[in-house]
Amino acid sequence: MDLTSPWLPPSEDDSRTQPSSPGGRSAMRCVRLLLSCTTAAELLGTVLAEGPGWITGEGSALYLLDPAGMLRLTASHGLPDWAHERYSTVDPAGDLPAAMALRLRRPYLLTPEHTSVDYPNRNAGMGTGMVAVITLPMIVDERPVGVLALALAHRGTVPRRDLDVLETIGDACAHRLSHLLDHADARRPQGPAPAPEDSGRPAGLAHPMLSLAVRAAGHGAFERDLVTGESYWDAEAFRITGQPAAPDGAAPELDRIVHPEDLPDVQAAVAEALATGGRYRIAYRVLRGGGRAASIEETGEVMLDVHGRPVRIAGLFADREHGRRPGRERPEEPAGAPAGPGSPTARAGAAPAGAAPAGAAPDTARRDAPATARTALLLALTRALSRAVTVRDVTTTVTDVARPAFGAASIVLDLVDEGRLLPVSHTVYGGPRRTELTRLADLSEGVMQHALTRSAPLFSEPGTARGQRGPLTPAAWAVLPLIASGRQVGSCLITFATERAFSREDRTLYSAFAGILAQSLERARLYDTHHHRATELQRAMLPRTLPRLPGIASAARYLPSTEGMQIGGDWYDLLRLPDGRIGLVIGDVQGHNAEATAVMGQLRSGLRAYATDGHDPAATLARTSRLLAELDTDLFATCLYLTLDPADGALTAARAGHPPPVRVADARAVELDVPGGPPLGVDPGQPYPLTVGRLAVGETLLAYTDGLVEDREEDYDESVQRMLGGLELWARRTGPDRIGAAPALERLADLLTLNVTERRSRPDDVALLLLHRTSPLP
Length: 778
What we know:
By secondary structure, the protein is an alpha+beta fold. It has a six-stranded antiparallel β-sheet. Strands 18, 19, 20, 21, 24 and 25 form a six-stranded mixed β-sheet that branches.
């Protein structure tokens, strides 16, 4: 198995047929899906995709016992390279967590303290002290199968109910793996494909009866890594397509095997499958030796990563002529003919190639079929690009959908910025692929600028200057100028691994794609510009820095929402009051749009004015509530305002529908008892109760908006308790003598927002303000 491969989420069809919980996940649903998985990687992916939201995914792994009795890393997600090298094999007699869990035959939990300090490498806990790791032994009928290791977002103790859920998930994985190991190999194939004279066993099928059944059905297996571009076929796949077997199992290019008349239809179906993910089925003709055409059927699945990007395609080729009795001829079915309701061609609405329109002659239909298929390909690419919102989304769509559909090795996008072309394609990749695209962008800078200046596409010619081609020069390429509404948007380079001739139809197709891409990029750049301005407007309304106050240390964070306009109405403030006291304000205006930001700015200014006039927190909130009611808006806001006297620690506080502040003292974190009133603007005549208390030297105060703890997949109260546990953990680890140091408080602010930044989406913006009393004033 490729240890660095992303986890595999369940298919769309599965998710539609299974009942879902209100939050989209449930333990029972997860167990049901686990019992239908077919590989170890799919099991791990299902746990991460469908298990409780507090399973973070980063740093999770699945180990299987090999015949030598060693635990071997078989599937992983988010493990760094050093972990693959150091922990790819674990001795069950050792002291590592996986070995301990298997030896003890019970879950072995590493608390956040262990993962950040005591674990063999502190990076295992991402250095946060806020991530727990649990290793679950997978045992069936007293027979050990392996170990499942999961990273958890528990920042305090892991409650018993969560341990029960984890043990249930581990048991389900164990029983499914036991079944797979008895009937088929749950491990992915390693090494080269078998030679044609070998057994011909399809890749990954270790059980002889299953291998024989697949071969008897005339099927061949294939796999393609969409990130690296590497493809693998087994021996049967080469036989079915009539291609000479490659020693390393590397698959030939798409245009080398598909009948030229069917290629556009296949490209359109592939583009649609890549854009939607999940299972697909298409039929097309291939060219075998002597130019003879044969019909095959391709059935597979496009696998998506945690961000919904296609990362892998795997499936089977079937010889549609296999098993046909001699003398019985069957009419050829052209490429893209829907082989079932899940066919991407059927979803795309494309007619099968060769299908005659009403009243059209068969010869006319055959001539028009390639044009119809190219139109279907452009429609599929247009649909995919229409869903892209930002420039990064467009670049990702081009990389994930257009590149595989065209059969291209790479696509480089350059955008015009102040008269210069700047490459952006590498931003959607990491590691070696990013370096490769950067080099390719540097190499092609001149020709991409030339094509844009001429406003005409450029195509390579086969054999041209072959002897002068360097090691980085692509075998074939097309450079497309991107022009929208008469404005130069950028340039696009499409490279291919083998030489090819671009027909007139090909050049027309790429030119049309360039027009669609240019329009998408122009729209995306406009969105990015508006969003940047809105974000800058909101940040301008927040304090640039917190004031330095005697006897007080402070830290603050703000994170915008990742949905909608990605702006909101959260704000915070730290005030110097005329009588020497300090004012702490945090609030949240309803909504995530420009109006919420504007109202937030008005409330912040109004509350600051009332506070500096000397009003206590209760009177300040009452006046601010009346101010909001008088504004021309239907929005309301929650708010917390408290004052602190640095000399003696005296606190006064009032709350308008806002989460209560948290006090951290003596390694304990508790919510302050601050009775509250309605949100601002709801009942302007309602008074707010005033609470009096004290903050001792060495104690810390946290004020936050609900976006910090609110999670659609978890009960709100449980999220709050998890945060309180994390605060207590931080206090124990940091120690009373270091808590007041500015770096420690900044570190705490980062830790509190860590769990938020790791979520797939952030529906609400987040604000927090930390205050620590370091010493009494003289």
